[in-house]
């Protein structure tokens, strides 16, 4: 990268010293522009060499997050939630509704997570809860009528927003 910067600088100096050599001004401008682009991109690569985030690395990290159980252990009948070294079973059939929430913390940051309401109690898990990605995928697979395109509703003046992801439907017996 340093060689590219040095060569580009030498070419720029030669063009500036011998500017009227070329028959067309457009060629000189094109060479100058190309050298400036090469210097800018080479300089960025030198100053930020650890910028290795690409599609494969992001995909690998996502796959690892989706396989990580964290505080949850999912089964076919429900999931166990580990809290204070106690395991509590939350059955899929007991879940009444699931909401995604977003709470503003500051002007530019929001805390997001899931709110799960069951027959007995409700649970809130934020995005930093270990294993939340796998739990979300398991809920999508086990709960029917998962709604990904529900409207987001603003709940209060402080900016709390909720999106209904799932709601249990009761069948009426006639």
Automatic annotation (TrEMBL):
Keywords: Membrane, Transmembrane, Transmembrane helix. It comes from the Bacteria. The chain crosses the membrane at residues 5-21, 27-48. This is Uncharacterized protein. It comes from Chryseobacterium elymi.
């Amino acid at each position: 990268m340093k060689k590219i910067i040095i060569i580009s600088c030498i070419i720029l100096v030669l063009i500036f010293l011998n500017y009227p050599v070329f028959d067309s001004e457009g060629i000189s401008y094109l060479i100058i522009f190309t050298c400036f682009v090469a210097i800018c991109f080479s300089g960025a690569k030198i100053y930020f060499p650890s910028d290795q985030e690409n599609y494969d690395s992001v995909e690998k990290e996502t796959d690892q997050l989706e396989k990580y159980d964290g505080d949850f252990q999912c089964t076919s009948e429900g999931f166990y939630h580990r809290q204070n070294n106690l395991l509590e079973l939350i059955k899929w059939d007991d879940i009444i509704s699931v909401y995604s929430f977003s709470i503003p913390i500051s002007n530019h940051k929001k805390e997001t997570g899931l709110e799960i309401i069951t027959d007995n109690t409700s649970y809130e898990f934020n995005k930093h809860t270990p294993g939340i990605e796998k739990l979300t995928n398991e809920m999508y697979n086990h709960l029917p009528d998962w709604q990904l395109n529900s409207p987001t509703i603003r709940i209060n003046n402080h900016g709390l927003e909720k999106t209904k992801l799932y709601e249990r439907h009761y069948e009426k017996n006639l």
